[in-house]
Amino acid sequence: MFKKKNISLAVIRRLPRYLRYVEDLLNHDVMRISSSELSQRMGYTASQVRQDFNNFGGFGQQGYGYNTQVLYENLVKILGLDRHFKMIIAGVGNLGQALANYTNFYKKGFRLVGLFDVDPQKVGRSIRNVEIKHINKMREFIKKNDVDIGVLCVPADVAQEVANLMMEGGIKGIWNFTAKEIDVKDDVVVENVHLIDSLMVLSYRLNEKLIEKENADQK
Ligand SMILES: NC(=O)c1ccc[n+]([C@@H]2O[C@H](COP(=O)([O-])OP(=O)(O)OC[C@H]3O[C@@H](n4cnc5c(N)ncnc54)[C@H](O)[C@@H]3O)[C@@H](O)[C@H]2O)c1
């Protein structure tokens, strides 16, 4: 359906932002947008937007721009959001519980089907009607339910061990929140998340502004 070539990770990382933006246009009944308007509003160049979309065949028409509904549907397909992936969380502590309670994942097609922990105080309790099971039940659960994504929210020192259990069950993708870089089989996809990286980028930009101000004050 779409041109499948080696799409750079930088392009892929821009797609969710396009989707969010186009979704917002649709919510405001904007049914059509030019690439220059889209780019201006998003802070990209028009040629970048065209290039990004051309990776997937391009969805615009010369002189018309983009039909926002068509663009939205294409972005959903490209991102695989129409597949409704099944997801489990291993480690139901502060972060695991926050993620389990975040209903927007469900709205985007990620279905939370299992929660796993070792803590006897947590096992048996439920979050949003999903029961927390002991980690020793996870491998069979993944197999039986054909789970796609495993979310790793355990302490770093057991991350690889828990990731191995996920892979033995046949998990296809791991969303790794731990600080540990995990080793995975070739057919398993890993996405590492470090909120602190984003905070450090904020710190960098804040620092630049403060330096600018300090230099201006000294003049
Ligand atoms: N990437 C990020 O931005 C980010 C942000 C916050 C936390 N983290 C990381 O996420 C992880 C969880 O953080 P937290 O604050 O929720 O910690 P937490 O201590 O509140 O929760 C950890 C949970 O893992 C469980 N656990 C321990 N060993 C286990 C095992 N072998 N199998 C299954 N469950 C097990 C514990 O019982 C506990 O419920 C940590 O590795 C932390 O560093 C990452």
TrEMBL record:
Keywords: Cytoplasm, DNA-binding, NAD, Repressor, Transcription, Transcription regulation. Pfam families: CoA_binding (PF02629), Put_DNA-bind_N (PF06971). It is found in: Cytoplasm. InterPro entries: CoA-bd, NAD(P)-bd_dom_sf, Rex_actinobacterial-type, Rex_DNA-bd_C_dom, Tscrpt_rep_Rex, WH-like_DNA-bd_sf, WH_DNA-bd_sf. The keyword NAD applies. Its main location: cytoplasm. NAD(+) binds at residues 91-96. Gene3D superfamilies: NAD(P)-binding Rossmann-like Domain, Winged helix-like DNA-binding domain superfamily/Winged helix DNA-binding domain. Residues 17-56 bind DNA. Residues 80-181 form the CoA-binding domain. Signal peptide: none annotated. Modulates transcription in response to changes in cellular NADH/NAD(+) redox state. Belongs to the transcriptional regulatory Rex family. Homodimer. NCBIfam families: PRK05472.1-3, PRK05472.1-4, PRK05472.2-2, PRK05472.2-3, PRK05472.2-4, PRK05472.2-5. This is Redox-sensing transcriptional repressor Rex.
